[in-house]
Specification:
The protein contains 18 helices and 2 strands. It has about 525 residues and is mostly helical. It has a two-stranded parallel ribbon. Helix 10 runs parallel beside helix 14 and helix 10 runs antiparallel to helix 17.
Length: about 525
């Protein structure tokens, strides 16, 4: 299995062979790291309350535990995607799988919040090798346009399936084992990946990769790291912290990165991709959709467990209908996309997501579990359809030799959206909670400090109080948190509206036309 396939854009247009059963089995193998990464993100959101109880992180550390992984991942995706184009996408997939498994074991036994954050950084490094490879290898395996549409729909549904399995499997583990068990899920997933990948998936790379541009790699890191860290700092410390300086540095290094790519004979990232409206529009739709989705999961996981009192597993089961709808919507949209233009289909789908967020805003304060389930079903249906269409546009817009870098840009938008969803919407929710928390009189000083820090801190403090003070603190914390959910939901709805407008104005060309331009 040492054969290397390096397809040129012309070849991709003149021949479109359909794959047999080996191609679909190869797709199943590529789904394993997709499931792994999506399970990891969802499980951690549901494990956060237990991590908070055992490791006692501060509110800033809570955000870092979630965001350290996507921060590093987003910073390295373009670099790793380019490395995959140069050295081999299958090779990068295998290296990433081995590293991800080893670091997952270390994360499972982290004795402190600081070491868990460090392990999450390591997961980000190896995760950056995994994700661009999976999507770019789909382009190599599925040359036929119709088969590729279905393969991408299944690939996108894999994220949703992981999100569905994560809370349920993770919830079972959290009820019966230590919180670190959720990280050990990576081991049984990666073992078959390491065995089957060399047997079923051909190697592919850019036939003319050019030289390695170390300065471009450094400039890409210097652009992404301060950008994501600056956004986090803005959410935690406000405009008087280092946020504006960091974002300014990111803009400066980003300008230098783009200028270098435009002048280079063999750029690390082909900037001409962004001149195509469907490519750029699809990236923006992905970014905004993920911000909305991850922001929703951030607050709903805490509401279900800390306010409604559900166990982690029951909270996961409560979200299962919405995640199932997201998967189904991503598959149903495939035949529809053959007949309806993306500029019409994507905005129409996102209307469902807007309605879901509005329903949360109207019912958040004292709302029922049933309303949250219905709202998430509506949100998931819209995002599931939109992301299937936008991911197909990303792959179709890129030359096959540069599909690794194009996939990396798409994955960067996804991971940056995960950071922004937690940081911006989580930061706004935390700020609103702190400002509007009306503590009951007679509360001890240590309980007051814990309650002001996080919702989990308030619930832990209430457990140590006698009645009626305990119930009064729980009610005050729940009211402040759900009030913040209302504001956060309206912001989420606005972001989805922006995504719909972007889709309507940029996805105007037919996908076959865009592909033909390359």
């Amino acid at each position: 299995m040492s054969t290397t396939y390096a397809h040129t854009p012309t070849e991709a247009l003149t021949t479109s062979p359909r794959v047999g059963w080996r191609g679909w089995v190869a797709l199943a193998v590529l789904m394993l790291p997709v499931l792994l990464v999506s399970v990891d993100n969802t499980v951690l959101s549901f494990a956060l309350p237990q991590i908070s109880l055992h490791l006692e992180p501060t509110s800033a550390q809570q955000l870092w535990i979630i965001d350290a992984y996507p921060l590093v991942l987003a910073s390295l995706l373009v670099t790793m995607g380019t490395m995959g184009d140069r050295f081999g996408r299958r090779k990068m997939l295998l290296i990433g799988a081995i590293g991800f498994g080893v670091v997952s074991i270390l994360a499972a036994f982290a004795p402190s919040a600081e070491l868990l954050i460090l392990a999450r950084v390591g997961l980000g490094v190896f995760g950056a090798m995994l994700m661009p490879s999976t999507l770019s290898l789909l382009r190599t395996i599925f040359r036929d346009r119709e088969q590729r549409r279905l393969a991408i729909a299944i690939w996108a549904a894999g994220f949703s399936a992981g999100m569905a399995l994560g809370p349920i499997v993770g919830g079972f583990l959290l009820q019966h084992f230590h919180w670190g068990s959720v990280f050990l899920l990576a081991v049984p997933v990666l073992i078959p990946l390491l065995i089957l990948t060399p047997l079923l998936i051909p190697e592919s790379r850019d036939p003319n990769p050019g030289r390695i541009d170390v300065w471009s790699i450094l400039l890409s890191l210097a652009t992404m790291v301060p950008l994501v860290y600056g956004i986090k700092s803005l959410a935690v410390e406000g405009i008087f912290g280092p946020a504006l300086l960091l974002v300014g540095l990111s803009v400066l290094f980003g300008f230098l990165f783009v200028r270098r790519q435009l002048r280079a004979e063999s750029p690390m990232l082909d900037m001409s991709l962004f001149r195509h409206g469907p490519f750029t529009g699809a990236i923006l739709v992905n970014l905004l959709s993920v911000i909305a989705l991850v922001g929703f999961l951030y607050f709903v996981a805490q509401h279900l467990q800390l306010i409604l009192g559900l166990s982690p597993m029951d909270a996961g089961l409560a979200l299962l209908p919405g995640l199932a709808v997201m998967i189904l919507a991503g598959l149903v949209v495939v035949p529809i996309s053959r007949r309806v233009a993306p500029r019409v289909l994507v905005p129409a789908a996102l209307v469902l997501s807007v309605l879901g967020y509005i329903l949360v805003a109207l019912t958040a304060d004292g709302g029922s579990l049933v309303m949250l389930i219905v709202a998430f079903m509506s949100l998931g249906a819209g995002i599931g359809m939109a992301e299937t269409v936008s991911n197909e546009l990303v792959l179709s817009s890129a030359p096959s030799a540069k599909v690794g870098a194009a996939s990396a840009v798409s994955e960067t938008a996804y991971e940056l959206g995960a950071v922004l969803g937690t940081t911006i919407m989580g930061g706004i929710l935390t700020a609103f909670y702190r400002v509007n928390l009306a503590l009951p009189a007679g509360l001890p000083a240590d309980a007051s400090d814990a309650a002001r820090e996080t919702l989990a801190g308030a619930m832990v403090a209430a457990d140590g109080l006698s009645e009626p003070l305990s119930s009064a603190l729980r009610d005050a914390a729940a009211h402040a948190f759900d009030g913040g959910v209302v504001i956060t939901s309206l912001i989420g709805a606005a972001l989805v509206v922006v995504a719909a407008v972007v889709a309507a104005t940029t996805l105007g060309k037919s996908r076959s036309t865009v592909a033909a331009e390359h």
